[in-house]
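Posting this for the archive.
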Amino acid sequence: MPTYVMLFRWTQQGVEHVKDSPARVDKAKQLFQSMGGEVKTFYFLMGQYDAVLVGTAPDDETISRIALTAAQQGAVRTETMRAFGEDEYRQLVASLP
């Protein structure tokens, strides 16, 4: 199953309700599960982004639905990237002409 890295920035609403953020992490885990994915890791960050989540989803369309559903709640803005594991990376490089 593809792996994705999701970077989060809190909106003003997210910061105003920061005490609710642990419950939002729980909801994100449930959202991933309900769409056939899984949250592998979550970290609160210092710096440009407020949090990062690494998870799996069946395909790009599903992770897009997850990201849009999370953003609809109004507490975060997301940036999502497809991540290729080491084995996938080696296969990609080996397939180069």
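The chain has one domain: 3-94. The longest helix spans residues 21-34.
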